[in-house]
Design brief:
By secondary structure, this protein is of the alpha+beta class. It has a six-stranded antiparallel sheet with strand order 2-3-1-9-8-10, with helices on one face. α2 packs across α3 and α11 packs parallel to α18. It is globular.
């Protein structure tokens, strides 16, 4: 886990090394354990590469980057972890490769040198890589299958900048950037973040997940660029019966956790008391044995309506796993003040106070000296854990004319009393067609009025599995892994995600929906797979909370004066034509008068434009505001 940066320019004598140094300085939190750089001429281009190291595997200088082959012909900078590096190392050694270190970085370098781009099919992990081949005069940029590790690109005045964080590109280029109206529009209208390669900064884009970008650095005065998808999120052929499916899910999940325990520094678990994180903790206990120390960190509030404490304690007792508790200080003013720091860490607005909670957890992890933490992100998307997936499944069945099955599934969930408690029209409206949405005050400014940025978020003409792929690729997971990476790396911590092991994802996508939504339960096949590892109270738990924060009521009461002061003053979002300030004030007043947990207005309807305003003010010096 590290930070990378690079510059490619056609301008002879371009100070790429100086620009790269500024880029590394801007994201130094990503790599406190070492810094390295390389620069040189490649064909017609000046190339500079920089790396910041957070040492996880092989803590010696042998893991230093940029790393080159012994003959100097190929090299790379690498951010991430390849969890199956030991198996790949053995395979490469059988082919005659001799290693100089114990690092996974060297395995990645030799894998690319040996197998070329086919190596990416072999990697099980998360990565952002810049691989340079001086003989072929090529530079290849690659991002892992789910975009867990960030990689941003920007062409400016004939120069390419790339880095792990946007703020690094801002520092390296020294330029101002416009605000991307499409990205802002989707955030304000649909609460979408990271739903497209474009960022909030015009001209800065993310390399899409599961893609390689190859630049040929000879010939013309501009690199020949080839963008290719190397992996498609498809299911695997599966004719498993129910018992076989349960066993396959169990075995694949346990192996995914096993691989993610490989580390030369302490590894912990973010334990919430829910099914997903508790299952990770149970798998860790199973793999490591009863006598091994487990490092669990949990957030608790002391308020019963928001507290996961009883479920965390149940998991802790069952697994003999002591827990480090982080008391979430429910001082709304402090959380509001932390928003600016969290938004700066994310380089873009955030959609709730949840990233602030994660930020506080990562601060505690640093204090405790736990460098690597496993997280349950991706479980709900993989296993249909949200209420919306039940509705999509019912739609799929009814559209196919399977009326008896539709009624049977609906009856099972009604009798069991599980996910229907999650339903809120204020959240569900995001998935409704336009004609079915409740009327609301439009706060979009003139710059957003003339264009339609809305993405389809319903089931459409596809299947439930197709809709899961959309959440994994665009509508849910990208935003979650974005804020987990940024808030964890702010404190130099690494997050690992067993539920996004590509083998686990492919297996679950291949299983029929009746194995995920069954007998009134979400995640049925996974619950069955893990029921012998955890207390029944957790495996068959009916409610669902997660990081629950009283943020909806904060905006109405404790933070009302802060909100009104912000909206009463001059707003940059209004100046840029992105938000209608008076319309926002009217919307906010209606929101404040809406009864708790009722009405069609979501917390996000008033939080998102405020988060946008905070982002604009924090990055004002890097934005074109004319």
């Amino acid at each position: 886990m590290c930070g990378i940066a690079g510059v490619i320019s056609t301008e002879r004598g371009y100070a790429g090394g100086a620009a790269t140094h500024r880029m590394l300085h801007a994201q130094r939190h990503r790599g406190p354990d070492g810094e390295g750089s390389w620069s040189g001429s490649v064909g017609n281009f000046e190339v500079a590469l920089g790396h910041l190291r957070l040492a996880i595997i092989d803590l010696t200088e042998a893991g230093h980057q940029p790393m080159f082959l012994p003959d100097g012909s190929q090299g790379l900078i690498f951010n991430g972890e390849i969890y199956n590096y030991k198996e790949l190392r053995s395979e490469l050694e059988s082919l005659g490769v001799t290693f100089r270190s114990e690092s996974d970085t060297e395995v990645v370098l030799w894998a690319l040198a040996t197998w070329g781009e086919e190596a990416f099919q072999k990697f099980n992990g998360m990565w952002a890589i810049a691989w340079i081949d001086l003989g072929k005069r090529t530079l290849l940029l690659s991002r892992d299958r789910f975009g867990i590790k960030p990689l941003y690109l920007c062409w400016r005045d004939g120069t390419l900048f790339f880095a792990s964080e946007i703020k690094a590109i801002l520092a390296g280029s020294g330029k101002r950037f416009g605000v991307n109206a499409q990205t802002v529009g989707r955030f304000l209208q649909q609460s979408l973040l990271d739903a497209q390669p474009e960022t909030f900064f015009s001209g800065i884009e993310a390399l899409p997940a599961g893609h390689n970008l190859t630049l040929r650095l000879d010939g013309s005065m501009r690199p020949e660029v080839l963008l290719e998808r190397y992996w498609t999120m498809a299911g695997v052929d599966s004719s498993l019966n129910h018992e076989q499916a349960i066993e396959a899910v169990r075995a694949t999940f346990l192996d995914a956790v096993t691989l993610r325990l490989r580390s030369d520094v302490p590894v912990g678990i973010l334990l919430s008391g829910g099914m997903d994180s508790s299952s990770i903790a149970a798998a860790m206990r199973y793999v490591l044995g009863r006598n091994a120390d487990l490092h669990a960190i949990s957030a608790v509030s002391g308020r019963p309506e928001y507290d996961e404490g009883p479920f965390i304690e149940a998991a802790s007792r069952h697994l003999a796993c002591p827990v480090h508790y982080v008391q979430l200080r429910f001082n709304p003013a402090e959380w509001f003040d932390l928003l600016e720091a969290v938004i700066y860490a994310n380089d873009e607005p955030v959609g709730s106070f949840s990233p602030v909670a994660h930020y506080l957890l990562m601060e505690e992890a640093q204090r405790l000296g736990i460098t690597v933490l496993l997280s349950g992100q991706g479980g709900d998307e993989n296993l249909c854990g949200y209420f919306k997936f039940l509705i999509f499944y019912l739609q799929q069945l009814s559209k196919g004319g399977h009326w008896f099955d539709t009624l049977k599934v609906l009856s099972g969930f009604l009798q069991n009393g599980t996910v229907f408690s999650q339903f809120k029209i204020s959240e569900a409206k995001r998935y409704l067609p336009r004609f079915a949405k409740p009327a609301e005050i439009d706060i979009c400014g003139p710059r957003l009025q003339a264009q339609d940025f809305v993405l389809p978020t319903g089931l459409g003409d596809g299947s439930l599995a197709d809709r899961q792929r959309i959440d994994l690729a665009r509508l849910s997971v990208p935003a979650l892994v974005h804020y987990e990476d940024r808030t964890s790396m702010t404190w130099s911590r690494e997050i690992r995600l067993p539920f996004l092991d590509y083998r686990f994802v492919q297996l679950l996508l291949s299983l029929g929906p009746e194995l995920k939504l069954r007998d009134g339960w979400t995640k049925w096949v996974f619950r069955k797979a893990m029921e012998s590892y955890l207390p029944k109270s957790i495996v068959w738990r009916k409610d669902k909370q997660g990081f629950t924060i009283p943020q909806a009521e904060w905006l109405k009461h404790e933070l009302r004066q802060r909100m009104e002061n912000l909206m009463d003053g001059e707003m940059l979002s209004a100046k840029l034509g992105l938000v209608d300030r008076q319309a926002l004030q009217r919307r906010y007043l209606l929101y404040c008068n809406q009864p708790p947990n009722h009405g069609s207005m979501s917390f996000k309807d008033v939080f998102n434009p405020i988060a946008l305003e905070i982002w604009l003010r924090r990055f004002e010096s890097s934005l074109c505001l004319n």
